[in-house]
Write a structure and sequence with these properties.
By secondary structure, the chain is of the alpha/beta class. Helix content is 21%, strand content 25%. The protein folds into two domains: 12-213, UDP N-Acetylglucosamine Acyltransferase, domain 1 (3 Solenoid), CATH 2.160.10.10; 218-271, no CATH class.
């Protein structure tokens, strides 16, 4: 390596070194990868691990066993990894695991799980807008958009690419399917099937999320799959059969991946022993 190369390497390393504001409180045992930036007033606890090129905004609090991946943006006032708001919690050393390239806006709260060995999990490339709360043991996929002021109770599962409108609550143990769209101020107290539009108080199915499907992989090249999905969705939620019978009829035919995922979701929702997925209401 010649002198110029050495200088370039040193310059790059300096640019990507960890930058901690003098007014931040970062425990010496925390693990910060290269390029991490910690703003003034932020608090980073001893068991926190932060991936490369992640920025932590002013007055954010990162505590507990928290793993935060690379290239995340945590905005001011967010609180990640704190104890769950669960009366059953007895101090177990549980975790929050967050993937890469997430945007976590102002005052978002993400609580760790309740019992030993459990996790609260968030995938990659999600947008959690200001004042969202994720309760203990939630499991979020990737590329989810959550608007402002969404309150998510414990043990909620949200699949990839769901879009959820603002100022609403999601009941504990609810499962929201892939590419579902939930309208703002909806009361979400039952499972939301994949690819569906949901709106109302209480929430009700309104139809397929056709705009979301059009923007996804189910475009014109998969027109047959999209047509089958519409047929199966109509059979399950708009026919005169009870949903268990509709599911039985649907499973008698050869299903493509989207319709297969929908049927699997509905079957699991029924078997949970609660009220099953949301009903249809035009």
């Amino acid at each position: 390596m010649n002198m110029n190369q050495s200088l370039d390497t040193a310059s790059t390393t300096a640019k990507r070194s960890v930058k901690i504001h003098p007014l931040a409180a970062v425990d010496s045992r925390a693990e910060l990868d290269y390029g991490v930036v910690v703003g003034p007033g932020a608090v980073v606890g001893p068991e926190v691990k932060i991936g490369a090129d992640t920025s932590i905004g002013p007055n954010a609090v990162l505590e507990g066993r928290l793993i935060l991946g690379a290239r995340n943006k945590v905005f001011p006032g967010a609180c990640l990894g704190l104890e769950p708001q669960d009366l059953k919690y007895r101090g177990a050393s549980t975790e929050v695991v967050i993937g890469n390239e997430n945007t976590i806006r102002e005052c978002v709260t993400i609580n760790r799980a309740t019992y030993e060995g459990e996790r609260t999990i968030i995938g990659d490339r999600n947008l959690l807008m200001a004042y969202c709360h994720l309760g203990h043991n939630c499991d979020l996929g990737s590329r989810i958009v959550m608007s402002n002021g969404i309150q998510v109770a414990g043990h909620v599962v949200i699949e990839d690419r769901a879009v959820i409108g603002g100022c609403l609550g999601i009941h504990q143990f609810v499962h929201i399917g892939r590419l579902a769209m939930v309208g703002g101020m909806t009361r979400v107290d039952r499972d939301v099937p994949p690819y569906s539009l949901v709106e109302g108080h209480p929430g009700r199915l309104r139809g397929l999320n056709k705009v979301g499907l059009r923007r996804s992989s189910l475009d014109a090249q998969q027109e047959g799959e999209l047509r089958q999905l519409q047929e199966i969705w109509t059979l399950l939620f708009k026919s005169d059969y009870v949903i268990a019978k509709s599911l039985e009829i649907a499973l008698q035919q050869e299903l493509m991946p989207a319709a297969q995922h929908l049927c699997k979701f509905v079957s699991a929702s029924i078997q949970k022993g609660r009220r099953g997925p949301m009903p249809f209401n035009s």
